[in-house]
Amino acid sequence: MPKVTAGGDLGPNVIVFDPSTANIQGTLDSIFSQQESAQFGTGRYALLFKPGTYNGLNAQIGFYTSIAGLGRNPDDVQINGDVTVDAGWFNGNATQNFWRSVENMALTPVSGEDRWAVAQAAPFRRMHIKGGLNLAPNGYGWASGGYIADSKIDGTVSPYSQQQWYTRDSQIGGWGNGVWNMVFSGVQGAPAQSFPNPVYTTLATTPVSREKPYLYLDGSDYAVFVPSLRTNASGVSWANGSTPGASIPLSQFYVVKSGATAATINQALSQGLNLLFTPGIYHVDQTINITRANTVVLGIGYPTIIPDNGVTAMTTADVDGIKLAGLLLDAGTTNSPYLLQVGPAGSSASHASNPTTVQDVFVRIGGAGAGKATTSMEINSADTIIDHTWIWRADHGAGVGWDTNRADYGLHVTGANVLATGLFVEHFNKYCVEWSGEGGRTIFFQNELAYDAPNQAAIQNGSTAGYAAYKVDDAVNTHEAWGVGSYCNFTSDSSIQVDHGFEVPQKSGVKFHDVLVVSLGGMGQYKHVINSTGTATSGTSTVPSNVVSFP
After folding, report:
1. H or E element: which one contains 32?
2. Does 448 participate in catalysis according to the annotation?
3. Which is the catalytic residue, given 438, 448, 480, 503?
4. What tens digit of pLDDT does each residue of 441-485 get?
């Protein structure tokens, strides 16, 4: 195969503004009108702002749209205006405001408060809000989010109707309230630990973190900045000037654009190039296989990778420091064994000093059309950091049904000392999360069991009623989790009961903190929270059952 050319332009779906660009607002409005309600559409956009000051903008952000500054640090791009997510398209209900992002800019909101009313898969990273942040839709309708990292909010963050939220390595002026599960790690200004009243789980630091790589302008040339690993982090990475790390010029990336084949992508990897996926939809007929340590695979504007013929979409070797970020893996119509596999089965090397990171890598099974995968994501490499994922078997859209978009397992972890920060996994036919590796840790977990289980028998798990949302295998001796919740909403049969949301070995090294289960309107019930501990849910009142500490 001929040698692949690196670098080049970013393609037609990346729109770059500078302060002198004419009619920025008109361009923003045009893209939003196309993307506002296009939940399963094919449009993909990245809106990038060069360093400078922009006045009077309101960037409304719809589906599959990423907005980001191109500065080295957030304050290099100053917007006197707003970046807004609301839910007018869905009658004030924000629970389906998925797949959009904002990153690396400073905002001075017109009203003093910016609105970011999102649900899953809508990261808010490296932002400086010179005012407050409102996480609820206009009218305070239902909302089910969300994720903030490496951000400074000078004023108060007001979640209002948000059911759950995770904030990491940030600085806030205050926090307004909590509904079910609000989790903080390494957040200066976070409320004190108080679960379940209020529902705050607060860790002073994040054990290990590395901020997501990001595209920026190094002079007049594009480059990707790769932040350094942090241990026991607190506050933003850019508090002392610039985020520490390394810069990689775009000339060391294959810029993946519409029409690229898996063969070409793999050829680029074999040449030692990194990958920058631009906004688009990419069908792959062979596995994208990342074998070189420290390879960066960065997507902007929700590039969507769909495996054909039942292949696994992406795998990595068991090597140090791979960075996977900003991708949507969408199952194909032929069942894939996996969509993402980090390290082959049996991986055993230590990567403690330079782990692989999986950040804003989202998985979808069905919704845009029928899709199937046995296991969505498997993490076999030790020390991997999963920093914000939403692994979703669709409960609405096209190609949805108990067997139509069959997917038994969401996340399976076999690697040792894997850390998940911001883990959202929903609706799988069997276990949403199964953890087989030693030393695992999860900070924040949000889950809904599969809505569409046809009856009790369909989810019978041996002698156990239902599959736990989060299962730690019996052989595991050490595991710890903080701020974890599972919800049931059995729309096909409200009489279904599950024994527990969480199932773990009864060992002193297996510890869970701030655990909840909740029945949404009485559509099914949990008998216990974790193992046989915790009171059953009951009635239609949508009141959680909580366990503060287990065992």
Report:
1. helix 24-35
2. yes
3. 448
4. 999 999 999 999 999 999 999 999 999 999 999 999 999 999 999
